[in-house]
Design goal:
The longest helix has 25 residues. The strands form seven sheets. Strands 1, 2, 3, 4, 5, 6, 17, 18 and 21 form a nine-stranded mixed beta sheet that branches. A five-stranded parallel beta sheet has the order 7-16-8-9-12. It is an alpha/beta fold. The radius of gyration is 24 Å and the shape is globular. It has 13 helices and 25 strands.
């Protein structure tokens, strides 16, 4: 059953499927592979020394999900806690999935991939990696590569480059990007300046406000917040009447997805009405019917054109009402020894500055790829439904949703990829590529996503490095879960966009393992 041998000592190994990344995408994909393709031998390569991906990277105060865990959790593993969960609770959940399904024996931690090369003549990917604990250079071969490493740089967060020119080095207090937060740092009694207003800022601000002398949030532009209690009344009621957890998970998951679909559609059709409803929630949680939204809580863009930040129990707004938080909407003129001066001339003093300025997009983990010796430039490829790419055989990339839980697409792609692998196994072929159909020739080739659809800073900054999309639904990642959940399960693996070749059946061709070092 899928076992790859002694993964602690082998310096080269062949598997049918190599999964890159042991985060939420990689662990979910491994589960589906085990369940749906029991013939397939697989391994997982993870750069970190533990599982969890983004939930291990981020250690700032209050770090939590901004999606509910009934949909962010896997469909096969019931979630039994509050809808919004801490990073620790999510890691515990993932650990249970790994242990309950024997996935741990397939994971190689501390392996940094240095190159991926595919040769059509052999039908194999050759993946080079460095084992970080001893610097050993390892070689892996596989028939199919499943990229689950995410989409941003876990080691180099984004800082506006102009900050250096604006005197960041002059600041004499402590400075840190939230992505690089040291959990041992003691911020009690400090004056904290948080720069940014997105999901990270929405998380750290109320956490800081509990112990800091004062918190100031400096933002260029406001963010939309959705305030709600951190509970699900339907789940609580179903449990109260004795419904089993798998059924609770399935029903509540379905209800939440329906509600999210309705909200997304309303944000496009009647954004002003939705904004007024969001305001009413703020007023309810703060107890202030005259809460003032101008200028600090009135965004310049349409609701859901960027991510809608979840605010459990209205904690950000309650911190503002209680006097523990000051919000300043302005830009930085200059950093000073004691803080910053804004463009309007306001001086903000701080003992600690925390940058919540986002991250850097990193396509395919920044790993060099070649196909038949030619370097792959991802911006020259066109995506097939945000999963596969023209000119790159036997590879899938998990890219989730921005407006719905990432894991919904992990589960959906698990079905799609496993179905394709089983189709290849049954047909006796070892290579699949996507290609334009006759009706696709001459279609417009466009950026990955249109700015009107979704335009957060990290995506706009890195859009030129992303694969391209076509003007037809098959050749784009449309970010619409509710449409994809109908379309993707109906895809025929014999459709003309899939080209198969090779007489060696994936899953039967084995390469001798190298002698362990």
């Amino acid at each position: 059953m899928n076992v790859v041998g002694n993964i602690e000592s082998d310096t080269a190994i062949h598997v049918d499927v190599l999964i890159v990344g042991a985060g939420i995408s990689g662990i979910g994909s491994a589960y589906h592979l085990q369940e749906q393709c029991p013939w397939a031998r697989y391994a997982i390569l993870e750069m970190k020394d533990t599982f969890g991906g983004t939930w291990d990277t981020h250690k700032y105060p209050g770090v939590r999900s901004d999606s509910d865990l009934y949909t962010f959790g896997y469909r096969f593993k019931p979630w039994v806690g509050a809808p919004i969960a801490s990073a620790g609770e999510i890691l515990k959940y993932m650990g249970e999935v790994i242990e309950e399904n024997g996935i741990d024996e397939h994971i190689r931690y501390g392996h940094r991939i240095t190159s991926c090369a595919y040769e059509r003549d052999t039908g194999l990917w050759t993946v080079k990696a460095t084992r970080l604990e001893d610097g050993a250079e390892l070689t892996f071969t596989c028939n199919f590569l499943w990229m689950c490493q995410g989409y941003y740089d876990h080691e180099n967060p984004y800082l506006p480059p102009e900050w250096q020119e604006k005197g960041l080095a002059d600041f004499q207090g402590d400075f840190v990007h939230a992505q690089e937060w040291d959990p041992d740092y003691d911020y009690e009694g400090k004056r904290i300046l948080v720069i940014g207003s997105g999901a990270t800022a929405a998380t750290v601000v109320p956490a800081f406000a509990e112990k800091a002398a004062h918190v100031t949030m400096l933002q260029r532009s406001p963010t939309y917040f959705f305030c709600s209690e951190n509970k699900n009344e339907l789940a609580d009621r179903l449990r109260e009447i004795g419904v089993d957890e798998p059924t609770v998970h399935r029903i509540v998951r379905q209800q939440i997805m329906y509600d999210q679909d309705q909200l997304t559609r309303r944000c496009q059709k009647e954004p002003d009405v939705v904004f007024e409803e969001l305001k009413e929630l703020v007023r309810a949680f703060t107890g202030k019917p005259d809460f003032e939204f101008e200028p600090h809580f009135t965004p310049k863009y349409r609701v859901w054109q960027q991510r809608l930040a979840f605010c459990p129990d209205g904690d950000v707004f309650r911190a503002a009402v209680d006097g523990n938080l000051t919000v300043v909407t302005d830009t930085i003129e200059r950093f000073t020894e004691t803080g910053v001066t804004t463009s309007s001339g306001e001086e903000i003093e701080a003992d600690l500055i925390v940058a919540c300025t986002g991250f850097n997009l990193l396509v395919m983990g920044g790993i060099p790829f070649t196909v038949d010796g030619e370097r792959v430039d991802w911006s020259d490829t066109v995506t097939y439904r945000g999963m596969m790419f023209t000119g790159v055989p036997n590879m899938a990339w998990v890219m989730g949703y921005f407006r719905a839980s990432w894991t919904l697409r992990v589960d959906m792609m698990g079905d799609f990829v496993c179905g394709m692998l089983n189709h290849m196994h049954g047909r006796g072929v070892d290579r699949v590529e996507v290609q334009f159909r006759p009706e696709d020739r001459g279609m417009d080739i466009l950026p990955w996503i249109e700015a009107e659809n979704f335009n957060p800073g990290y995506l706009m900054r890195g859009l030129d490095a992303m694969p391209r999309r076509g003007d037809k639904s098959e050749w784009r990642h449309n970010q619409d879960y509710w449409r994809e959940r109908e379309e993707i399960p109906r895809i025929s693996y014999d459709a003309p966009e899939f080209v198969y070749s090779g007489e060696r059946s994936i899953g039967t061709k084995k390469k001798e393992q190298a002698v362990p070092a």
